[in-house]
Amino acid sequence: MGIAIMEKKQHSHSTFLFLLVFLTITRAQSHVPAVGDPGMKRDGLRVGFEGWNFCNEVGQEAPLMGSPRAADCFDLSVDCSKNLFLFSSLVIPDSGKLIHKVTEADNKLGVGQPFDGVGPQDINNTDIYAAKKELYLGSLCEVKDTPNPWQFWMIMLKNGNYDTMSGLCPQNGKKVPPFDSPGRFPCFGKGCMNQPILCHQQTQIKEGTMSGGFSGSYDLGFDCDDDGYDGLSYYEVIWEKKVSVGSWVFKHKLKTSKKYPWLMLYLRADATKGFSGGYHYDTRGMLKILPESPNFKVRFTLDIKLGGGAKSQFYLLDIGSCWKNNGTPCDGDVLSDVTRYSEMIINPETPAWCSPTGQRNCPPYHITPEDRKIYRNDTDNFPYSAYHYYCAPGNAKHLEHEVDTCDPYSNPQAQEIVQLLPHPIWGEYGYPTKKGDGWVGDARTWELEVGALSSRLYFYQVSKKKIKTQMQLFSCEIDN
Ligand SMILES: *[C@@H]1O[C@H](CO)[C@@H](O)[C@H](O)[C@H]1NC(C)=O
Ligand SMILES: *[C@@H]1O[C@H](CO)[C@@H](O)[C@H](O)[C@H]1NC(C)=O
Asked: Could you say which residues form the signal peptide (predicted)?
């Protein structure tokens, strides 16, 4: 899952709002849905929540919030006696009952409290406890399907504050002692890496419409019953659907504050098992088939209502995956696993750092749809403005080109990031071709050839052997 950490975002009070409707991921050739609930049409919804600190762990739980993993999963049971049958044609039901799978007691489970699947050796470890709680919630939400069951969409919230004196984050997977680095990362002082206050409106049904949500703040004084949140950070995800009609709509809102200037909120479709990018534990998700480049595409509708200003990024789609520099799949060894991210930033205020004079910020070469390589020193032909930034894994030993290495602290393992900007060359894959495409006032349904595009992006690898790149998950990111 994509956490691109390379800019310091000191921008206060920026807000993002977006709506996402019917996400479908299909394997292009066979049109087999890879995602559970393609089109988000199923009345019974599955939503998970997770909070991450700067290096994708928990660190410390927020007071009274339990471990930052939660879920809202339910099935709809239609009460037939209340519906009309006219000449044996069924009138669409407008009522029913939601049968919830997860209780508030489950959601509040916190370190030290037992549940099915957490052993005594892990029960006091906040990081491992959260990973196990995700598996437990997944087991409550799981929907049987072929060829694999699936569990939930994942709402992921990340606090970009990093207290370098906390000793909490490894450096490219290696444990490092606390270090002093004033001003390099946002942090107001001790405790700045806290987990959020989580308020849950369990999904309800009213007059034929189901809706529910997660919301809250990183500011620990936040009160769920109080709707005044001036000056405090705020996040909100609301889901809504009419019974038997259309698709689920997800409405996201994110606001930073002085103390929390860098926040991220994603809606993710993760692999239903295995090591997702950015995470060294087994995860649960929606991808019952792991989409594999180049044969998959993603369809969704996006309507951005309000941007977050020049220093924020908005990812139309973020793909995260994990493989080692020798091409073998990740196995949880954080010293050799490498998380790979590729994302297109559609905030039109985001400039291309890659340029003829800033070649260091570009990938070594661009690959055309005809599979031709254009080196970045080919100033007549390289599409500089199609790339915002590239950085190489911090554990790469044979870099042939002068490039930045990615931030070593913000993921549990080394990471590699390729950031794209709208450009005519991406039109071939259904991606935005010019600044402003898909932005505020330009709501669209996208059908992205994600697999084809991702198979033509440069990623670092040592061996020349052809690697089957597995793209493990997607994220729409709000990164303030
Ligand atoms: C976990 O912490 C509790 C409370 O401090 C303690 O009683 C218990 O022995 C600990 N369990 C393990 C396995 O360390
Ligand atoms: C451009 O870069 C490629 C690959 O690094 C190198 O082989 C080539 O000599 C370079 N060309 C120029 C004109 O510097």
From this structure: 1-28
Say if CB 293 and CB 321 are below 8 A apart.
no
- Binning pLDDT at 50, 70 and 90, where does residue 313 land? confident
Look over the chain and give the mean of its residue pLDDT values, rounded to a whole number: 87
Protein residues with CB under 6 Å of any ligand 1 atom: 112, 120, 123-124
* Domain regions of the chain by residue span: 15-479
Residue located nearest, by CA, to atom 13 of ligand 2? 377
Distance CA 223, CA 197 (A): 8
Q: What's the gap in Å between 139 CA and the centre of ligand 1?
A: 25
Ligand 2: residue whose CA is nearest its atom 14: 377
- Ligand (nearest to CA of 129): 1
The C-alpha atoms of residue 197 and residue 217 are separated, in whole angstroms, by: 5
Q: Which atom of ligand 1 is nearest to the CA of 124?
A: 1
Starting from the CA of residue 403, give the closest ligand.
Answer: 2
Compute the distance from residue 385 Cα to the ligand 2 centre, in Å. 20
**For residue 91, pLDDT beyond 50:** no
pLDDT in tens, 210-244: 999 999 999 999 999 877 678 899 999 999 999 99
pTM for this entry = 0.90
Ligand 2 center from residue 344 Cα (angstroms): 27
Structure-token pair, residue 17: 């709002």
Ligand 1 pocket mutation, candidates 61, 122, 124, criterion most atoms within 8 A of CB: 124
Comparing C-alpha atoms, which of 36, 55, 56 is closest to residue 45?
A: 36
Ligand 2: does its nearest atom lie under 6 Å from the Cβ of 377? yes
Neighbours of 164 (CB within 10 A): 18
Q: Is the CB of 381 under 6 A from ligand 2?
A: no
